Amino acid sequence: MLEIIQKPWTWYVAGALIGLTVPALLLLSNKYFGISSSLTHICAACIPAKISFFKYDWKKEIWNLFFVGGVLVGGLVASQLLSNPNPFQVSE
Q1: Residue 89 domain flag
Q2: How many domains, in total, are found in the chain?
Q3: Helix or strand or coil: residue 60?
Q4: Does the pTM of the predicted model rise above 0.70?
Q5: Over the stretch 14-72, which tens digit does the pLDDT of each residue have?
Q6: N or C: lower Cβ tally within 10 Å for the chain?
Q7: Is residue 86 in a domain?
């Protein structure tokens, strides 16, 4: 299983998985998916100003903040534990 994760995936498999995740989440659970929407939640949680755009229950969208944390932790794990120390071989 680890060998499958460490090898590069072809563009059409990885692209399809990434591209279909966002519409699938929107259709199945009516949730917006992305990093930029989490920035709105962070601003709503951290800025105590009386801006009407940030006046909503951001705690209902806390799953999105956990997603961003998971992206950061996953990137750290992938770069530190799953990286290939050998240089890439690019054909001429």
Answers
A1: no
A2: 1
A3: helix
A4: no
A5: 889 888 887 887 888 877 767 888 888 888 888 877 888 888 888 888 888 898 899 89
A6: C
A7: no
Do you know the residue count of the chain? Answer: 92
In SS3 terms, 9-53 reads as CCHHHHHHHHHHHHHHHHHHHCCCCCHHHHHHHHHHHHCCCCCHH
Nearest to 67 by CA among 27, 23, 21, 28: 21
Do 84 and 6 form a contact (C-beta atoms < 8 A)?
A: yes
Q: Per the domain annotation, does 73 fall within a domain? A: yes
Dig out the tokens for 60 from the structure: 């209902």
In a domain, 88, yes or no: no
Residue 17 has which token pair? 């998985």
